[in-house]
Design a protein that fits this description.
Blueprint (H helix, E strand, L loop, with lengths): L10 E2 L46 E2 L3 E13 L7 E6 L8 E4 L3 E8 L7 E4 L20 E7 L6 E7 L5 H6 L3 E7 L1 H5 L9 E9 L8 E2 L9 E4 L2 E2 L2 E4 L3 E8 L6 E5 L4 E6 L2 E9 L2 E3 L4 E7 L8 E6 L9 H4 L1 E7 L25 E9 L9 E3 L11 E3 L4 E8 L6 E5 L4 E6 L2 E2 L8 E2 L1 E4 L4 E7 L5 E6 L3 H5 L3 E6 L1
Parallel strand pairs: 3-6, 5-10, 11-16, 15-23, 24-27, 26-35
Antiparallel strand pairs: 1-12, 2-3, 3-4, 6-8, 7-9, 9-10, 11-13, 13-14, 16-21, 17-20, 17-22, 18-19, 18-21, 22-23, 24-25, 27-33, 28-32, 28-34, 29-30, 29-31, 29-33, 34-35
């Protein structure tokens, strides 16, 4: 059996030249011998956080929007004064934002000008198998193309797209292949009190490791050394805000890092998660995000003094590894003198979820991986590693099922992502879910060591073969992935 683990490669970023002007240090050649960058030497809150560009369709018919993207290498400024070679969609790091509408198809032509094959998965989307971005449904390197059709026949959701190529997704995403896809509908738009336009800001959070030439250093299962925190592609940036309320849609696009987010002072309002708005807003002091998860929050900067700052921080114990002065800092908000107090309260009832249908099938899944710290360590679901030639679970089309998922490891956390469907989290460790992000629609759920969750999903809309896996990319690449066939 061919496994992911025995073909993955570690190493430094591809070398090249930049030809950039100004104070930027060009991408250096011969970085294989470079030492690691000391993250303590990177200035904190010295760069402005950008908002990724919104990708405009090149054609629209009223029932479909047509987009084109090119995957290519680019040299971008992540660290102050340096250029870093990354893999991008359209040269943007992170990739551009697609703002889609329920009921209007998005047709996206992807051209791959990278030296490696890719496969683009729209995470959290309800799509036919041939547009799911399966691990063997590859776009050839150096000029291959594929057109993905996203029906958008689901409610509003905070989706994102990323590489899912067999053997390569862990490194490709680490090097930059991810972007944001915001799907809206009339239900979301009816909540007119929510901030829009420039006050509705997507933020991709992740971590990275660099050498002293400013180039990304990739190695499998390397969470201890990925200690530079990025927000929208910048290391520890700041963001200028007005003296008013903002909506922030926060995506954890890390390979492995967990974020336990809070503000340096004050609280925020949780209004949504992976699958869009919650039924009711919740006041929160912190929220945990495992890799692949999203939260939608409101921060009212009118509650802070003019010309003050407040930080978005990460708890030091969100996961092991990294000096606290590095991994606990994320993003600084600088509160300007414009804006005014927003009048009107957030609707107590933002949406209504349909009643859960009765489940007719119950299944159990165990996540585990070797904990030897060896290069030969593998990941497993129900004691087997991923095999692209094996169907692990047969599901009857239209069936509603309850899945009990357990993390059997004693040290290592995992999470669980199902393609094709959004699901509801029913229980965690035998207790019903009554608050927090997991009361909403989800497609990814965290499992700390020894934990068990029960989730419920209905498998309808499309037939075919889809994945379920740990969404810690390095764990999936080590074999913690399986296939289900809906028929």
């Amino acid at each position: 059996m061919i496994t992911r683990r025995n073909v993955l490669k570690a190493g430094a970023a591809v070398a090249g030249t930049a030809g950039a002007a100004g104070l930027l240090i060009p991408v250096a050649s011969g970085t294989a011998e470079a030492a690691d960058l000391d993250p303590a030497t990177v200035p904190k809150f010295a760069q402005a956080m950008p908002i990724p560009p919104t990708l405009a369709p090149y054609s629209s018919t009223g029932t479909a929007d047509y987009y084109a993207m090119t995957m290519k290498e680019a040299d971008v400024q992540i660290l102050p004064g340096r250029l870093t070679r990354v893999r991008t969609f359209n040269g943007s790091f992170p990739g551009p934002v697609i703002r889609a509408k329920s009921g209007v198809r998005a047709v996206v032509q992807q051209t791959n000008n990278l030296p490696v094959a890719t496969s683009v998965h729209l995470h959290g989307a309800h799509v036919p198998m041939d547009s799911d971005g399966g691990p063997m449904d590859l776009i050839a390197a150096n000029g291959g193309t594929k057109t993905y059709t996203y029906p958008n026949d689901q409610p509003h959701a905070n989706l994102w797209y990323h590489d899912h190529a067999h053997h390569a997704e862990s490194e490709n995403v680490f090097r930059g292949l991810s972007g944001t896809y915001l799907l809206t509908d009339d239900v979301e738009k009816s909540n007119t009190i929510l901030p829009t336009g420039a006050y509705d800001v997507p933020i991709q959070l992740r971590d990275a490791r660099f050498d002293d030439q400013g180039q990304l250093v990739y190695a499998m299962d390397d969470f201890l050394n990925r200690n530079v925190i990025l927000a929208n592609g910048k290391a520890w940036p700041y963001f200028n805000v007005e003296h008013r309320q903002y909506r922030f849609r926060i995506f954890n696009t890390s390979n492995m890092r967990y974020f336990n987010l809070s503000l340096s002072s004050g609280t925020f309002t949780l209004i949504g998660t992976d699958g869009g708005l919650l039924e009711k807003p919740q006041d929160m002091s912190s929220v945990m995000l495992s890799p692949g998860e999203r939260v939608d929050i409101l921060i009212d900067f009118y509650d802070y003094p003019l010309n003050s700052t407040v930080e978005l921080r990460n708890a030091a114990d969100a996961m092991p590894g990294g000096p606290a002065d590095q991994i606990t800092k994320v993003l600084q908000f600088r509160i300007g003198s414009t804006g005014a107090k927003d009048f009107g309260a957030i609707p107590y009832q933002m949406r209504t979820f349909p009643a859960l249908p009765p489940a007719t099938v119950n299944r159990s899944f165990t996540l585990s991986m070797d904990e030897n710290g060896m290069a030969t360590d593998m990941g497993y679901i129900n004691n087997v590693s991923y095999d692209m030639n094996r169907i692990d679970t047969e599901i009857a089309y239209g069936t509603t099922e309850i899945w009990t998922v357990t993390n059997a490891n004693k040290i290592i956390p995992h999470n669980f992502h199902i393609h094709l469907v959004q699901f509801r989290v029913l229980e965690r460790n035998g207790k019903p879910i009554t608050s927090g992000p997991e009361v909403g629609l989800k497609d990814t759920v965290n499992l700390n060591p020894g934990e068990t969750v029960k989730i419920q999903a209905t498998f309808t809309g499309y037939r075919g073969t889809y994945l379920y896996h740990c969404h810690i990319f390095d764990h999936a690449a080590m074999g913690m992935m399986a296939q289900m066939r809906v028929s």
